[in-house]
C-alpha cells in the first residue's frame, strides 16, 4: 500500500515537472518568436523609412545625377516653404478656407499667401460643388497655372459630390487631385493639415526634365455654341472622383 502511494506520488511529481518544463519551453519559444518578430518589424520599418528618402526615386550614380538630385531638394524646400494657393471657393467650404487665413491659424507663418492670379499660384484649393457651367472656368484657371502645380479638393462636395452627388449638373472629374480633405464643411484645422500633407508630397517629388504631353481626356470643348455646352453636360469624365484622380505618391487624407 505504501509502495503504491509512493509510485503514484512520484508519477504525479514527474507529470508536474514535465508540464512545467513544457510551459517553460513554450514561453521560451514564444519569447524568441516575439523577439524575432520585433526585430523583423524594426527592419521593415527601417526599410520602409529608407524607401521614403529623397534619393529613393532615382539614386545618383555619378556627380551629375547627384547635382540634379541636390537641386531638386533645394527646389522642393523652396516650394513647400512658399505655397501660393489660388482660391476657388464655390460653396460654404470657402468660409473655412478664409478662417485658415485669419489670425487664429495664421497661414502666413508657414508661407501660405493667397493669390488672385493663376499665373502666380502653384496650388489650387477647390472648395465646394463643381457644376457643368463652372467646369470650363476651373479648367481654364488650372491650365493658366505654371508647372509644377497641385490641387487640393476641400469638402465632401468637391471630393465626391456630397449632397449633390446624383444631381444632373455635377461634374464627375476634370482635373487631377493631390490632396483630399474630407468634411462638410471641413474645419480650418483639417485644411491646414491637408496643406501640411501637401508639403510632405512636395518634399518627395522630383522635377521632370521634360514637360509631359497633355492628356486628351482633360480637354474641354469650347463654350461658343449650344452643341458644345450639351456635349459638356453629356460627356463622361472618367479621370477620377469628382475633381480627378490622385497622382504621384499616396498622399490622400489618411495619415
From TrEMBL:
Record carries keyword Iron-sulfur: yes
Ranges annotated as biased composition (Low complexity): 217-234
Gene3D superfamilies with a match to the protein in the record: 3.40.50.12280
InterPro entries: NADH_UbQ_OxRdtase-like_20kDa, NADH_UQ_OxRdtase_20Kd_su
Regions that span the bilayer: none
Cross-referenced SUPFAM superfamilies: HydA/Nqo6-like
Biological processes, Gene Ontology terms: aerobic respiration; electron transport coupled proton transport; mitochondrial respiratory chain complex I assembly
Keyword DNA-binding tagged: no
Domain of life: Eukaryota
Key words of the record: 4Fe-4S, Iron, Iron-sulfur, Metal-binding, NAD
Domain NADH:ubiquinone oxidoreductase-like 20kDa subunit: 92-198
Pfam family, one: Oxidored_q6
GO MF term (any one): NADH dehydrogenase (ubiquinone) activity
Region (Disordered): 202-235
GO cellular component, one term: respiratory chain complex I
Family that this chain belongs to: Belongs to the complex I 20 kDa subunit family.
The name this protein goes by in its record: 7319_t:CDS:1
Amino acid at each position: 500500500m505504501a509502495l503504491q502511494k509512493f509510485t503514484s506520488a512520484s508519477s504525479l511529481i514527474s507529470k508536474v515537472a514535465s508540464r512545467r518544463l513544457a510551459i517553460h519551453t513554450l514561453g521560451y519559444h514564444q519569447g524568441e518568436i516575439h523577439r524575432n518578430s520585433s526585430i523583423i518589424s524594426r527592419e521593415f520599418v527601417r526599410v520602409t523609412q529608407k524607401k521614403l528618402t529623397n534619393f529613393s526615386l532615382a539614386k545618383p550614380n555619378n556627380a551629375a545625377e547627384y547635382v540634379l538630385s541636390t537641386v531638386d531638394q533645394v527646389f522642393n524646400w523652396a516650394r513647400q516653404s512658399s505655397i501660393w494657393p489660388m482660391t476657388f471657393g464655390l460653396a460654404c467650404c470657402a468660409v473655412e478656407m478664409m478662417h485658415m487665413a485669419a489670425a487664429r491659424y495664421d497661414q502666413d507663418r508657414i508661407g501660405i499667401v493667397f493669390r488672385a492670379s493663376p499665373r502666380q499660384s502653384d496650388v489650387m484649393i477647390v472648395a465646394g460643388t463643381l457644376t457643368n457651367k463652372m467646369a470650363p472656368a476651373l479648367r481654364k484657371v488650372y491650365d493658366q497655372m505654371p508647372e509644377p502645380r497641385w490641387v487640393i479638393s476641400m469638402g465632401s462636395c468637391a471630393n465626391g459630390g456630397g449632397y449633390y452627388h446624383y444631381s444632373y449638373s455635377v461634374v464627375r472629374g476634370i482635373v487631377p487631385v493631390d490632396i483630399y480633405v474630407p468634411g462638410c464643411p471641413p474645419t480650418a484645422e483639417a485644411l491646414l493639415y491637408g496643406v501640411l500633407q501637401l508639403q510632405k508630397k512636395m518634399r518627395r517629388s522630383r522635377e521632370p526634365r521634360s514637360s509631359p504631353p497633355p492628356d486628351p481626356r482633360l480637354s474641354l470643348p469650347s463654350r461658343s455654341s449650344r452643341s458644345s455646352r450639351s456635349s459638356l453636360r453629356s460627356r463622361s469624365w472618367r479621370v477620377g472622383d469628382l475633381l480627378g484622380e490622385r497622382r504621384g505618391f499616396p498622399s490622400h487624407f489618411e495619415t
